């Protein structure tokens, strides 16, 4: 289903939960709403479902305005954060609910439920009650129940939040494959950037009720359009005085420019380790954290804190050690605009003569 | 350890003094003149009429209370079109009958709808009498028992939340279907518990009914007011006989209550 949202607003009393949000979603895409908790993601999702009425703005499905349609008529499937399974019904009856409402005949219902049970790997659990299932199984039931009436749009509110970390990754992959296979337009809400990047075709970053940026995970990573997006994706360090850093001395000091530097933009090494020695500067190792597959290093450069990672294969650094640092690029911004600046020293000034 | 045993023994003594001993006295009192005395007391015209009145009131009150109690609970918990202030206010008003003495409740009805009032006269002119007739007695019992159903159903509705109902709506179900298939199975044992309590309370209601009914023999007398009258007339055997019937009902209800309570917790 093709979805278009125009100037959507939602106010809860004096709280402006969603502010002037507009976007378009192509048919068959898997979209992730990403942002901090309480940012309005769920409100947008609930307005798309018809569970919440917009204060102003329009929602179009297939070019038809659906603002005045109740949830029953919108042809959507909704998976709730806590699944909201009917606890007095068996797995079979839960999945069959939407079909029974539509008064389908018994044989058809049985066949469709059987298909969904097999699709979601719940075979053998048809006669169990929700309280006899694990978190992951409940999630699958909720998913199958939402899919049963063949919705045009699937909405998932924090679908993995209530599941423990280990199964979460597994379920994520499963869900992505499943949605891909069915080709149904889907939107899911999450506050976990790793989850959004891994699962979604396209991400919409939503913060404080505003749509900050929409794009593929790679685009958002590569070209963050607002300081919020730049700081939210990845673990950037905020640098107040970028002029102290080698290569960035020429950045204007007057217009209140600040910088965000991602760990992967920073190269750290003992003196002589970095090839482009002319572009490096001195730094001190403040702390070392072991992160399982690599070291996270906290550096101090002229009183400013910078985070980077270092491979376990390289020589181990120690707190207090003097090291060399090369900053490949920085994301600069001030009140009006934001841009990415490459380190100019990385280009060797005399390449021809060497 | 000694102290604890002492307390437990004391509790048993108090319970038997307060509950078992009176029950025993009612039982022996009813059979003081043998089976014939008991049967005579029960088969008097006024006894049969009083028991019929009580039964009628119990049925009408329970039906009305269940219907409106469940409805009000749903509105108070779910309705988004009611402002929180209105909800809080009505929520406190629901408890009013618990706080007000039943006699006062009955008196309020007499003062509002009695034969000497504007409303009472107007209704009297079209041939409807409220006070000193069945409608007034039903009204008085309704007033006394109204909070019971709401107080049983509201917490359950709050606990289950509205997500299951919203899920039903996204699956295409409208409110009536959702109520019967989703909400009702969740609240039915609470409703049943409420019904049992309402029956028990309206069966034993005395004060409010006495004020409103005028206690007219063979007309507006209920089982409890008949017991009162028999005691006044020193007809102790008859009083005990009716009391025994009421007590037997109460014990039955108690057992039913235990059963529904267990089922309520299972869910």
Q: Main sheet of chain B, how many strands, which sense, barrel?
A: none
Cα-based radius of gyration of chain A, to the nearest Å: 25 Å
- Strand percent estimate of chain A: 25-35%
What characteristic shape of chain B results from the CA principal axes? globular
Number of structural units classed as domains of chain B: 2
Strand order of the largest sheet of chain A: 6-7-8-3-9-10
Write the CATH homologous superfamily of the largest domain in chain B. Answer: MetI-like
Query: What structural category arises from helix and sheet content of chain A?
Result: alpha+beta
Shape of chain A: elongated
Characterise the protein shown here.
The complex is a heterodimer of chains A (354) and B (267). Chain A has helices at residues 41-49, 91-101, 106-119, 135-147, 165-182, 193-199, 217-222, 227-232, and strands at 3-12, 15-25, 30-34, 56-61, 64-65, 76-79, 153-157, 185-190, 202-207, 210-215, 237-239, 258-261, 266-269, 281-290, 294-301, 304-311, 322-327, 329-333, 338-342. Chain A is an alpha+beta fold and 354 residues long. A six-stranded mixed β-sheet of chain A has the order 6-7-8-3-9-10, with helices on both faces. In chain A, strands 13-17-14-15-16 form a five-stranded antiparallel β-sheet, with no helix packed on it. The mean pLDDT of chain A is 87. Chain B has two domains: 1-30; 34-265, MetI-like (MetI-like fold, Orthogonal Bundle). In chain B, α3 (45-78) crosses α12, α8 (134-160) crosses α10 and α8 runs antiparallel to α11. The longest helix of chain B has 34 residues, at 45-78. Chain B is globular. The mean pLDDT of chain B is 90.
Topology, please?
The complex is a heterodimer of chains A (354) and B (267).
Chain A (H helix, E strand, L loop, with lengths): L2 E10 L2 E11 L4 E5 L6 H9 L6 E6 L2 E2 L10 E4 L11 H11 L4 H14 L15 H13 L5 E5 L7 H18 L2 E6 L2 H7 L2 E6 L2 E6 L1 H6 L4 H6 L4 E3 L18 E4 L4 E4 L11 E10 L3 E8 L2 E8 L10 E6 L1 E5 L4 E5 L12
Parallel strand pairs in A: 3-8, 3-9, 6-7, 7-8
Antiparallel strand pairs in A: 1-2, 1-4, 4-5, 9-10, 11-12, 12-18, 13-17, 14-15, 14-17, 15-16, 18-19
Chain B lengths: L1 H29 L3 H10 L1 H34 L5 H11 L1 H4 L2 H12 L4 H8 L8 H27 L2 H8 L4 H30 L2 H7 L9 H10 L3 H31 L1
Helix pairs in contact in B: 1-13, 2-13, 3-8, 3-10, 3-12, 6-8, 6-11, 8-10, 8-11, 9-10, 10-13, 12-13
């Amino acid at each position: 289903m093709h979805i278009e949202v125009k100037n959507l607003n939602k106010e809860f009393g004096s709280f402006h939960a969603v502010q002037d949000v507009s976007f378009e979603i192509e048919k068959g895409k898997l979209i992730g709403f990403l942002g901090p908790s309480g940012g309005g993601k769920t409100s947008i999702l609930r307005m798309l479902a018809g569970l919440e009425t917009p204060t102003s703005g329009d929602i179009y499905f297939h070019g038809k305005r659906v603002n005045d349609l109740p949830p029953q008529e919108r042809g959507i499937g909704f998976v709730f954060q806590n699944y909201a399974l009917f606890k007095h019904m068996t797995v079979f009856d839960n999945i069959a609910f939407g079909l029974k409402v539509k008064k389908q005949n018994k044989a058809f219902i049985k066949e469709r439920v059987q298909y969904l049970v097999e699709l979601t790997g719940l075979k053998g659990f048809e006669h169990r009650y929700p309280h006899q299932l694990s978190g992951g199984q409940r999630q699958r039931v909720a998913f199958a129940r939402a899919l049963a009436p063949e919705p045009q749009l699937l909405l998932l509110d924090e679908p993995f939040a209530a599941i423990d970390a280990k199964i979460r990754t597994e379920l994520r992959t499963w869900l992505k494959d499943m949605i891909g296979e069915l080709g149904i337009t889907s939107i899911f809400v999450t506050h976990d950037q790793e989850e959004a990047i891994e699962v979604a075709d396209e991400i919409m970053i939503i913060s404080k009720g505003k749509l900050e940026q929409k794009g593929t995970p790679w685009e958002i990573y590569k070209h963050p359009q607002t300081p919020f997006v730049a700081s939210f994706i990845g673990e950037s360090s905020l640098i107040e005085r970028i002029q102290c850093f080698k290569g960035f001395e020429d950045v204007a000091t007057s217009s209140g420019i600040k910088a965000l530097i991602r760990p992967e933009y920073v190269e750290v090494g003992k003196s002589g380790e970095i090839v482009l020695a002319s572009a490096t500067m001195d730094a001190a190792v403040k702390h070392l954290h072991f992160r399982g597959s690599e070291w996270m290093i906290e550096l101090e450069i002229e009183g400013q804190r910078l985070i980077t990672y270092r491979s376990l294969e390289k020589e181990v650094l120690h707190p207090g050690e003097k090291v060399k640092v090369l900053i490949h690029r920085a994301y600069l911004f001030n009140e009006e605009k934001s841009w990415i600046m490459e380190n100019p020293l990385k280009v060797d000034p005399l390449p021809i003569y060497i | 350890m000694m102290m604890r045993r002492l307390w437990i023994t004391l509790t048993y003594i108090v319970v038997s003094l307060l509950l078992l001993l009176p029950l025993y006295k009612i039982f022996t009192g009813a059979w003081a003149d043998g089976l014939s005395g008991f049967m005579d007391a029960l088969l008097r015209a006024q006894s049969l009429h009083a028991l019929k009145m009580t039964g009628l009131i119990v049925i009408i009150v329970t039906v009305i209370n269940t219907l409106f109690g469940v409805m009000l609970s749903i509105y108070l918990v779910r309705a988004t079109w009611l402002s929180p202030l209105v909800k809080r206010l009505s929520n406190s008003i629901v408890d009013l009958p618990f706080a007000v003495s039943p006699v006062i409740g009955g008196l309020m009805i007499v003062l509002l709808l009695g034969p000497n009032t504007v409303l009472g006269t107007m209704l009297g002119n079209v041939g409807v009498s409220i006070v000193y007739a069945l409608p007034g007695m039903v009204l008085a019992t309704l007033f006394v028992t109204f909070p019971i159903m709401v107080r049983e159903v509201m917490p359950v509705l709050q606990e289950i939340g509205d997500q299951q109902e919203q899920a039903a709506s996204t699956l295409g179900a409208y409110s009536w279907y959702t109520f019967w298939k989703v909400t009702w199975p969740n609240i039915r044992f609470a409703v049943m518990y409420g019904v049992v309590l309402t029956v028990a309370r309206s069966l034993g209601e005395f004060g409010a009914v006495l004020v409103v009914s005028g206690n007219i023999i063979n007309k507006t007398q209920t089982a409890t007011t008949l017991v009162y009258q028999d005691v006044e007339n020193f007809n102790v055997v008859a009083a005990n006989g009716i009391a025994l019937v009421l007590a037997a009902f109460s014990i039955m209800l108690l057992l039913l209550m235990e059963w529904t309570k267990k089922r309520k917790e299972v869910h």
